[in-house]
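job 3f2a | input accepted
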Amino acid sequence: MNRPKIAIIDANTLAVLGLKQVLQNVMPIMTVDTYGSFAELESNHPEQYVHYFVAMDIVLSNRTFFSEQRRKTIVLTLSLTDTSQLSDFHSLCINQPEPQLIRQLLMMVQHAHGGGRNLPPMPHILQQKILTDREIEVMSLIVQGYINKEIAAKLNIGLATVITHRKNIMDKLGMKSVSALTIYAVMHGYVDINNI
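job 3f2a | predicted structure (196 res):
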């Protein structure tokens, strides 16, 4: 089974590398290819991609192509007000703090691919339940912004127990940050993005 592909088209190498990492965390089932120009994309079978994340200047100079691919195109903007000339397209502001960027990406994914819609089935190993029910409860509260003490009070368990659950969750999932945990929780349907 071939993995669906996403293309990032932007001349800013640093921005491309950062966005590629974030997209691979948000949608681990996807393959992410990067291009520094539209010409590079064009010479590599652009029809193979399910989404294009494209710098605004590249969309503007190749508007005919991207207009035909409007539903698949996400314009990368530097501010939330940059979208007036490209209001027909979905846009993603890349000049914002990581939690907001991830939240915006997760909202886009949930809107377009909620419940796995329009995506191939997840491999069996990724469908298996890794966490216990209690760990899922703790994870849900962590990603909603509760601190350990509040989680202990909400679940009527000791603070040391919350800390142990938190460590076990991170170890089992191989994650090191709350942002990564948030992505996992939303993508697996444990938390609605609107509750974060």
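job 3f2a | The chain is about 50% helix and 15% strand.
job 3f2a | closed
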